[in-house]
Amino acid sequence: MRRITRITTVGIASAALALSATACGKSSTDSGSSSSSSDSKTVTAAIAYDIGGRGDQSFNDAAYAGLQKAEKELGVKGKEAEPSEGEGDADKVQRLTALARSGSNPVIGVGFAYAPAIAKVAKAYPKTTFGLIDDTSVTAPNIANLVFNEEQGSYLAGVAAAKTSKTGTVGFIGGVEVPLIKKFQAGFEQGAKDTDPKVKVLVQYLTQPPNFDGFSKPDLGKAAAQGQLDKGADVIYAAAGLAGSGSIEAAAAADKWAIGVDSDQYNQAGLASYKDHILTSVTKDVSDSVFNLIKSVKDGKPQTGEIRYGLAQDGVGLSDSNPAYQKMTDVIAAVNEAKKNIVDGKITVKTAP
Question: Which of 8, 166, 188, 212 could form a disulfide with 154 if both were Cys (CB 3.0 to 4.6 A apart)?
Fold first, then answer.
């Protein structure tokens, strides 16, 4: 489904005008004047969503929660911009330029796919702070790279999966085979194998770049999960954005366990029908990373450079919302021990399989 960009005060025409200004080298001056013309106590924060958009019950929704929190607690005005199906870097440049041109600060790109666009737009708007989630390849004095130790949270998921599995076979589903998602795979496999060397870990990726449908199409996740269930998997962990909801549906239909990702998916309204089968979720504190960046701009001390969230900072973790999980004291004990060993440096989690 093609989504409509949700920029409340910036239309297609203004975006095109902004791009024209960028080409003429005028946008830096324009951005400075638009920021200074607004009330210094008023912050308009903007987020541009990743593939799947808001409503994915996962990554994008976590970012939105951070914007909501900033609106409520900091009194900022929030803007949102949705991706369009099959878009390229030029579309992202246009989207970010429109947001920056309108005076939004910070402007946050949700996902590594925004790296090339932010590299261009940040140069044109040096007085605007840009947040880039899940990527460190692009740096500048006005860019904050918000990154996470996904492999650490995934290690804990591997521990839980191995301890919970009755068949000795568990599954990992990656949305798109890119280095970021391979971090999830690496941690999950290591955690499972360290817990039970005999456990079998099935691995499947839904798509290969440049095809990113593996982050947005639930039917792909459902089919992959069904294939793993047919091979004996009774716990399936998917790091696949919106597509992961399909794997959760398949696991629930088979009365097996699913492990969620990014958000605590047990508490996501869109997955309520399946929540009893969501054992736990690997959480990334995308929400607080967004909130913290917005707050830093509002306070006049904008974050820049790499800002990393790991187990030690509770930036990643494993949720315990499911009452069934809360009763698994042996699983919880094993997870807590693994967490302590990672934080203490006794376990180093791999970032690639």
Answer: 188
